[in-house]
Structures are given as structure tokens and as C-alpha cells.
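Note to self: keep these together.
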Amino acid sequence: MFLISRSEKINRIYQTLASTKELFVSSIIYGEAYTGKKSLVKKIYNNSLWVDGNDLNNVKEALKNSNYVVITNFDKILNYDELNFENINVVAISNSKNMDSRLENLFAFIYNMPSLKDRVEDIELYKDIYKKEAINLYDIQSDVEILNSDIDISKNLKSLKSSVYKSVLLKSLREDDISYLLYNYYLKNFSGNNVYKKQLEVFEKALISAGLDIHKSQLKLSDVLGINRNTLRKKINEYY
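Structure:
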């Protein structure tokens, strides 16, 4: 499903690409992986013949036998001279960050898909969409707050979706879920000597971190935890 974009540039790409759908012209949309190129094209050209650029022979066969062809992974094709785009509608999708100058004579329309970091207006939009999906998937009955520090856009929409799903799941865990999670963790890491001391950090560090964020004071936190302030300071110096 093509996700609505708040990016003016992406909306222009979509509109222009849609306007040339019935024309025998060639277009290419390029940019980083997982920026939504394939979803955008699929919204318009879902009924076209789709082929993978990893199989050049299959691509050439498709160009011979179909009037409407979408070529994914176009950056995997090295010999452009073997391609004939005459009298057909071709849309190529490339994960190359930079446009090969040799392609300027092959394609009538060239579109650059901006990465998510250059589409700040879309990050919040997609974050909310993926959060709703995750809440529905995990059957969570209450809202979950997703902070900007929780999300990862290093791999565009792929990492954004993954980080949002992960955050929703982890923030909705109940006490029995956490106990089960720790149980399975300890099953894999219960080895060597001094296991208790080694694994104490797993839950103690998180407890102290959360306490410091809540109370903003080591003195207050030591009172709440019921431990000596020097003991708390020692643990903080040990863990951070």
C-alpha cells in the first residue's frame, strides 16, 4: 500500500509519473533503498509487467512482449545497450544514490527520491502509521508514546518501521512478560562463575537509569531505593 506523503517533492513525482502512464515513454526513479520508490510506482503501475533487473534476459524478454514494464533493481543492469524502450511504457526503479549520466539519453523522465532524513515532514506521519499498525498487531489496549529518540531512520522506512514496532512492543510489556523475557535471556547466558554478579547489571542498571530520569537526584533516588547514597554512587560509577 502506498503511504500518503507530506513531501511536496514526492507528491510532484507521483503526479507527473501518473500523468505519463498512458504514454509510450521511459521513466526512472532512483535513490536510497527503502524510501518508498516501489510503493509509489506500484500505486500507479500495479497492473504492468514487473521484472527484476537481476535477470537481464528476463528484462529483455519483457520489453519485447509487453507494452507496460516496470523494472526493479535497475542498478543491477550493467549493459544498457541491450535494452530497447521504443514504443513501450517503461518505469525503472534504482537503488543507486547517484544517477548514471549514461542514462540521460535512455530515459525521458528522471526522478530522484529523497531519503527520509530529507523529508522531516514524513517522519512523524510514518511513525504514527506504523505505531497504529503495531498496536493493532500486538492487540494493545492503550496508546504508546513513541519518542524521537526511539526511532531509527538510518535505513529509511525499513529501519523506521522496525524501530517503531520494537518500541511499541517493549513499552507495552507487563511484569510477567518481562519475567519471561529475562528467563529466556538467562537460559542463554547462565554460564561461567559469579553469574549473579555478572547478570545483576542487566536489571540494576535499567532500574537506576529510570530512577535518575524520574527523580533527577541521586540523594532522592537513594531514599526511594532504600540504599545508601555512597552505595548508589558506587553503582553509578560502575555502570556508566
